[in-house]
Amino acid sequence: MTTFAPDPGAAPLPRMIGAQTALETRMLLRNGEQLLLTVIIPSLLLLLFGTVDIITVPTQTAGGAGKSVDFLAPGILALAVMSTAFTGQAIATGFERRYGVLKRLGASPLPRWALMTAKTGSVLVTEVLQIVLLTVIAFALGWSPHGNPLSVLLLLVLGTAAFSGLGLLMAGTLKAEATLAAANLVFLLLLVGGGVIVPLDKFPAGVRSALELLPISALSDGLRDVLQHGAGTPWADAGILGVWAVLGLGAAARFFRWE
Amino acid sequence: MGNEPAVEVAGLVKRYGAKTAVNGLDLTVERGAIAAVLGPNGAGKTTTVETCEGYRRPDEGSVRVLGLDPVAESAALRPRIGVMLQSGGVYAGARAEEMLRHTAKLHASPVDPGLLIERLGLESCGRTPYRRLSGGQQQRLALAMAVVGRPELVFLDEPTAGLDPQARRATWDLVRELRADGVTVVLTTHFMDEAEQLADHVSIIDAGRVIAGGTPEQLCRGGAENTLRFSGRPALDLASLLNALPADSAAAELTPGNYRIEGKVNPQMLATVTSWCAQHGVMPDRLAVERRTLEDVFLELTGKELRA
């Protein structure tokens, strides 16, 4: 028997990336804290604020008088993207770095770019699941979306890129514990100050114009323009997300430390 | 496949800030051999191995692994080597068998993961998440991950640290089988018995350089010195014993009642010692003729305990 007779070689790239994407997705969906962040919190916020009149929100839609869910659903979709691409990815990647997972994969046949591709793939799979669930809840609450789905898709992709860059930058430069704390804090602050459930016009004008430049505000505002008001592609918001994506991904590529 | 050595390290220097971790280290590993890098913690073992794996760029010197530059030609090298890190390397939530099967999927023609699970006694914890595995189970999983891709060359960084004797035996058997199947193995250890048992070639390193190298036999034979040990009652008059022995002998009471005599151990010497004991009414308990161990060699070379 020559069980270990050398026969080395990398698996074909598509197989490696597929296997890695599947593994990363399973890790994400198996993690209770991650599910709390990506599924439970957005769903509960949508249900709670969609059924109980806690904050007065502008409900006017392209189709006439709407419901609070018409304001909330786009914001919650933006929150879902942030929770997966930024918070969840930052925390998971931070601990993978801390526990040598990234280091060990760095000695495997899987190229680094393929690992990052797989990570992006698992973020996208998770987002699709989130969007399906949140859309079902929103429709149950009487949501009537408008606008061009392609504009929505563009905003979601740009938002994912912007938040991924920032999440990976954090995971690749800070200690895992610091990433855990900071990513949760940022999630909470942007949940309140990013136009997700609280309309930005509740803030003083000076603060508001600063908040509007945040990626979460650009994403929730852009999605609202399309889904609630039936507007065409909101290029200003798309532009803000694009700038964040370039800055975040560029800085992550430059400063990310694998160990 | 070329005929160059599996690993060729020449004059390797690696510094971390002001600290020099590796300081002019040379290491050659022939293909198909088991090479042990033996040394105390902090000697530079891990830095050396991780430089060969492409994780670190040498500050000075050259490193060739399977004829390749581990940093510049990493993409070509990685599929051909197996790596076991000293710790970690697995998703906290991944199950043992899941992670091994995943690692197998990254390779073109892997070993059957089920076989490795069985060989390394991981059947009972195949569905256990990594974070809940015992330290020994984590080590065995990391070993399985290192060999599952049928590599030509395997780097094992302290593969038996924290293992119970049974698991350590299973690891040794696997390493021997790797060699029998033509795989080159480089392992680091601070267990001298591990190096003696497994290695074809041992490099003893201390403070970032190789201070002795050779087969375990060569290293232990060094100078044909031999050792006789026995125990008896404490505080025997060793001066009188030495008078009876050849002039180049040495005697010491290592701990109360435990004696070591060094010199040319032959039947005459043995007879001299036992008759001296008889004259002094000493029963030489646990009388043993020993060759030097790598531990002794290390102690002589550095004045330090290997496991300290």
Describe the structure.
- The complex is a heterodimer of chains A (259) and B (308).
- Helix content of chain A is 72%, strand content 2%.
- Chain A is an all-alpha fold.
- Chain A has one domain (13-255).
- In chain A, strands 1-2 form a two-stranded antiparallel sheet.
- In chain A, a hairpin with a 2-residue loop joins strand 1 (60-61) and strand 2 (64-65).
- In chain A, helix 1 crosses helix 5 (112-140), helix 3 (68-98) runs antiparallel to helix 5 and helix 3 (68-98) runs antiparallel to helix 9 (215-227).
- The longest helix of chain A is centred in the first third of the chain and has 31 residues, at 68-98.
- Chain A starts with 12 loop residues before the first helix and ends with a helix.
- Chain B has helices at 45-52, 74-77, 96-105, 113-119, 135-147, 165-180, 192-198, 216-221, 238-244, 267-279, 294-302, and strands spanning 7-16, 19-29, 34-38, 60-65, 81-84, 153-157, 184-189, 201-206, 209-214, 226-231, 250-255, 258-263, 285-290.
- In chain B, helix 3 runs parallel beside helix 5.
- Chain B folds into 2 domains: 7-219, Rossmann fold (3-Layer(aba) Sandwich), CATH 3.40.50.300; 226-291, 2-Layer Sandwich (Alpha-Beta Plaits), CATH 3.30.70.
- Chains A and B meet through helix 1 and helix 4 of A and helix 3 and helix 6 of B.
